[in-house]
Amino acid sequence: MEQQTKTTTQKVVVNASVFLVLVLLDEPKEIRQSARLLIQDILTRRLQGHVPDRFEDEVLGGLVEAFTKGRPLLASPFIIFLALQRLMKALIVHHRGVDWSAQEVFNASSRWRVSYYDAVYLLVAQK
Fold first, then answer.
1. Is 103 exposed, middle or buried (0-12, 13-18, 19+ CB in 10 A)?
2. How far is CA 118 from CA 11, 15, 85, in A?
3. What is the Cα–Cα distance from 105 to 109, expressed in whole angstroms?
4. Burial (Cβ within 10 Å: 0-12, 13-18, ≥19) of residue 64
5. SS3 13
6. In what helix (H) or strand (E) does residue 48 lie, and over which residues does it extend?
7. What's the pLDDT tens digit per position in 86-126?
8. Distance from C-alpha of 86 to C-alpha of 107, rounded to nearest angstrom
């Protein structure tokens, strides 16, 4: 009888800063490299990436802010937008009202003494 081995894909929760540090050329090179490897592992399905539904808006808000402040970008904003859309297809998106409630996030942020923003990501990681 042949024994089957079950492989478990590692799960990671990705913060908007991970994508932004990848495309902002004035960020430290070693951090940009680590972000690139993480995103590459998600795109190739070596890792299972999870994000809250606000992730895309946070990335795009950060991108617009960086562009308007003249920060050097890896590519044009449009090309970066297309790269984000590709990444979004590879991510598992968790939604408010389905995967968590505002009350749950508020309670967690108070209990853990973190910002509401951080509590959303921590609850996604916990679930």
1. exposed
2. 18, 9, 23
3. 6
4. exposed
5. strand
6. strand 47-52
7. 999 999 999 999 999 999 999 999 999 999 999 999 999 99
8. 34
